[in-house]
From TrEMBL:
Entry protein name: S-protein homolog
InterPro entries listed in its UniProt record: Self-incomp_S1
Pfam family, one: Self-incomp_S1
GO biological process, one term: rejection of self pollen
Recorded family membership: Belongs to the plant self-incompatibility (S1) protein family.
Cellular component terms (Gene Ontology): extracellular region
Span of the signal peptide: 1-22
Organism: Nicotiana attenuata (Coyote tobacco)
Domain of life (superkingdom): Eukaryota
Entry keyword set: Secreted, Self-incompatibility, Signal
Cell compartment(s), UniProt: Secreted
Length: 145
């Protein structure tokens, strides 16, 4: 009987969608998005993102494209990115808080934000969220290059 139950549980994990397997607890599912909003005819943006457990690699996004990843956000989850653009570079944490994406985002990001939206512009980095009432993304400048 136990052997039969183990087979059923194993088969359920095989047929479950991948995003459910990556975060079995829906309330902890998180996304980080990085949008390249640099002006046209500018140097190529490059960035490298990682956590202690996940190596997301180097990326060279076209202007207007969005790179994103999903994960299970626990209390100690931390992702950082290093950005290069022409002669400028900057590195910082892009996720470390289950409620507001980053600890110092509590002043302008609502609690229980599931999608952390980063926008890279020529004047710096913007952190945002989707405002359900306005039906649009809202961004606040986070830092300069």
């Amino acid at each position: 009987m136990v052997h039969y139950l183990v087979k059923i549980i194993f088969l359920l994990f095989i047929i479950m969608p991948q995003n459910i397997l990556s975060c079995p607890f829906v309330e902890f599912g998180r996304e980080v998005h990085i949008l390249n909003s640099l002006p046209g005819n500018s140097p190529q943006l490059e960035y490298h993102c990682a956590s202690g457990d996940d190596e997301l690699g180097y990326h060279y996004p076209a202007i207007g494209t969005d790179f994103h990843w999903e994960f299970c956000g626990w209390i100690n989850t931390l992702f950082f990115c290093h950005f290069w653009w022409g002669d400028k570079d900057s590195s910082f944490v892009v996720y470390n808080d289950l409620e507001t994406c980053i600890w110092d985002g509590r002043n302008f990001i609502p609690s229980n934000t599931v999608k952390c939206l980063w926008k890279v512009q020529d004047d710096g980095f913007y952190l945002g969220y989707f405002d359900e009432y306005a039906g649009e993304n809202v961004y606040h400048k986070y830092r300069d290059w």
